[in-house]
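Project standup — Tuesday

K.O.: blocked on the structure for the chain from last sprint. Re-posting the sequence here as requested.
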Amino acid sequence: MATALGEEELDNEDYYSLLNVRREASSEELKAAYRRLCMLYHPDKHRDPELKSQAERLFNLVHQAYEVLSDPQTRAIYDIYGKRGLEMEGWEGTISVGVDATDLFDRYDEEYEDVSGSGFPQIEINKMHISQSIEAPLTATDTAILSGSLSTQNGNGGGSINFALRRVTSAKGWGELEFGAGDLQGPLFGLKLFRNLTPRCFVTTNCALQFSSRGIRPGLTTVLARNLDKNTVGYLQWRWGIQSAMNTSIVRDTKTSHFTVALQLGIPHSFALISYQHKFQDDDQTRVKGSLKAGFFGTVVEYGAERKISRHSVLGAAVSVGVPQGVSLKVKLNRASQTYFFPIHLTDQLLPSAVFYATVGPLIIYFAMHRLIIKPYLRAQKEKELEKQRESTATDILQKKQEAEAAVRLMQESVRRIIEAEESRMGLIIVNAWYGKFVNDKSKKSEKVKVIDVTVPLQCLVKDSKLILTEASKAGLPGFYDPCVGEEKSLRVLYQFRGVLHQVTVPDSEALRIPKQSHRIDTDG
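H.V.: unblocked you, prediction finished:
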């Protein structure tokens, strides 16, 4: 789903974090967590009007989370699109502008003639393509998709419009009906099906009927995929129709690299492809890539890089060198859900000068713009956004703080009983717990420590002398709130188990299980 440009939107509630369950939690785990929180927050257990009002709100929030996650269809939508996916819509699109710059390099001594009379090389836009689509959830299981495209090349153009209706049939699959029409082609009827066969294998089938002046053109594409290991997926694709082909590929994606190898046998295109992308673990998410593709059409070598230049924007460039295609420079900008693509054809020949300028030119332009324009602009924008975020979230933080304090008051009686039970069997007692930003680096002593006391909320989550927190931000747990929005946070717990003190500190989004993860404290010191 697309989001508004230049806007950072976050769901206020993480349902999994609220219920303190894994994203893979079974229905039994969801039900157990739901019942426990309902007993804690049930409004009838509180006589004080203020506490009763807070308990009612928390009770309704827990009920809402359970309603979404307990239904396989709404849970599938929530897992894919998040909370907004149940109620919002968004645009996605691509704008491609093809540029013919061969006049810069392909000059013929006798045949070349300067038509313009200006003495400068002619650079022309010879093709353009614009496509946009919007998805709008109709119900918890149905989504309508409207898309359209316009294309023009060398003075000739056309367009098409498509409407599709997608239904999530279960947590394992969905189906989609598509209807389309265009001025260059007749009506189109299509059917897409997706199904998880096993936890590690899925299949996608796309059937289409294209009506034209030449008759009916049927088409069928089937993709079978299987997870070979944690980071590797294998694909088998069969395509039957106007351009029949069989394709097999293996894709391996890790935190530091992306590797693809593919082989296709088909009419009219058969080829072999190998590509590699290295991901640098930096704030700009820099990636460098290279690929080699060889087939009946010739051979193409492509190399390039991409880098994040703002929160929502990624800029990339690639140089394509091939026979008989020549040399091209491809510039791409991803801005939120919009993609802007500029393929610039430099020469039909393999000219070293074209390869050199296509490689060095974009680098010089990028570093100059980044230093003189982008970096100062982003610095100013960041300061402005931080100030705006502080102002806009001040009220929300205050509300979250009040809700957390109310939740802690609601937990007091339950915590008292839990502590009595744990003390009787020398079990797990939370002595102190803090959540927020800790400053351990001596060079950062000037930074302010921003933590909140979460001893009571954590003790309330202790069950059978165990405390288990899932891989999610702790800010969504009952009795918690975010004391330092936008900054790195940790959870530090000092606890007693079997009469011995222990301490553990974990990053905000990491799972925690105690008493297994612990460090003994020297109580004599």
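K.O.: great, moving the ticket to review. Residues 1-12, 108-112, 517-525 have pLDDT under 50 and may be disordered. The first strand starts at residue 90 and ends at 100.
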